[in-house]
Structures are given as structure tokens and as C-alpha cells.
UniProtKB/TrEMBL annotation:
Domain DUF2470, first and last residues per copy: 161-240
Protein name as catalogued: Uncharacterized protein
Stretches assigned to the CREG-like beta-barrel domain: 9-149
Any coiled-coil regions, as ranges: none
GO cellular component: cytoplasm
InterPro entries on file: CREG_beta-barrel (IPR055343), DUF2470 (IPR019595), Haem_oxidase_HugZ-like_sf (IPR037119), Split_barrel_FMN-bd (IPR012349)
Amino acid sequence: MSNKSYHIHQAALLMRSQHTAVLSTHSVSMQGYPFGSVMPFLMTEEGNLVVYASDIAQHSRNMKKHNKVSLCIYDGRQSDSQASARITVLGNAEVDTVDDPLQDQYMAIFPQAKSYVQAHDFRFYLISTERVRYIGGFGEIYWFSLDDWQSHMFSLAKSAQGAIEHMHQDHSDALALIVAQQLKRPIKQGQVTMLSCYQHGFHYSCTTDSASGEVTSHIGFICFKQPITKDHGLRHAMVLLTQEAKKSVEAQQRQNQNDQQ
């Protein structure tokens, strides 16, 4: 993997693992000023972005008047925001251009948005990426052209659904192990639902029982060890995650045995 390919991969991983961005639009009411809004987003397999916004929102009015926008995504888990990775996507927003399968995918990742369907005239916007700015940390600053960005995107559209069904039917135990390692707590078989599958990893939903007896649901994203390409298949990617999770469980079991001796 070349240096550029590595950083494009890291940028895409950041966008997959984070689900909220700052959307900047051109203000209609304050001409010449940018207007920032916190916005959930989903990245498509082509490297474009999907957002869901109400017609009465200021950013929606702004996008309809001037469709050139940017989304800034960063890793909010890091204590030093200046040293952590972040990415800014510049693109053109178009309303009502998101197809039904992509809308369904968005709703799976953001189930709370289903309650907005009948409220305040929410509509989908597709932000077509034009250029990407990625900062991996101090001294790691890159611009990616549209060709650079799109040439590193690989679609799993034809195989994703079949792979998800296969994991649910035959490998629900492996899914539980993989998510348990991610969350650092025990997960029972059958508690994990695979929501998506992209070249960089997959979204999942995990249900757990709280101390009060209430069932809660957590949605997250697990990264593959390396991006899937024509030379690196989905099956192999899932096998690597499963093997790592099993090794982690075995190591913990050995540690527990040593502690008991």
C-alpha cells in the first residue's frame, strides 16, 4: 500500500467510525458568513455523503440557495483535538437524490431518524464529494482529489447482503466475539445484528440488558484489518477479525487462570 493509499484508507476509516459531523453552509440570512450545524451523516460506497435534514432548518434553506458545502469530521474521543485526526469534505449538496436502498441504510444506522419521517418535512440530501482535506496529526496534512478519493473506493453492493445473512445464520457466535472485543465486555450470541458491510468494515447493533432490566441498544462500527479490494475478500476480512477475537478471549482466560493460582 502506497503512502497516499494508506492515508486515504485512514481518512475513510475515520469517516466510517464517526457518525456526526459539522456541516458548514453559506448563510442566507447573514450573507458572506458560514453557518455550522451538527449533523449525522453516512458515507456511501462511492465516498459521497448522505444527510437527513428538515426543510425548516437553517442549513436546509442555505443548501437550497447555495449547494456548495463542507463537512468536518473528527475523532472526539481524543483529548487533544489539535493532535487528533480530522477530515473536511468539500462537495455539492442535492436534495431528493438519495435512492431507497441508501435511505434504508441510513435509517438502519440512525434508527431515531425514523421518527422524523412525518415531522417537519425532513428530506435526504446527497453531498457529492469534490475534494478531501485530511489531517492525520501534527505534520500529516493531505489534499485528496476526487479521482484519488473515488479510485480507492470498492463496492460490496453485490455481496454485502448475502454476507450479512450468512453471518447471522452461521456465525452469530463469531459476531458476538468480535463485538465483545470491541466493547471490552461479554456479549451473548444472538445479541448482535450486522447492519451494513463496506470495504472498510461493518456497522452493528448490539442489545444488552441493563441492571434495571431494560433492554438497550448500541450501534457501532468495526474496522477491518485492511480495506477490502478485488485481491482481499470479505470472507478473509471476517476470518481475521474472528481469529483476533478468539485469541483475545484465550489470552484473558489464561490470565484469569494465572490470577487464581
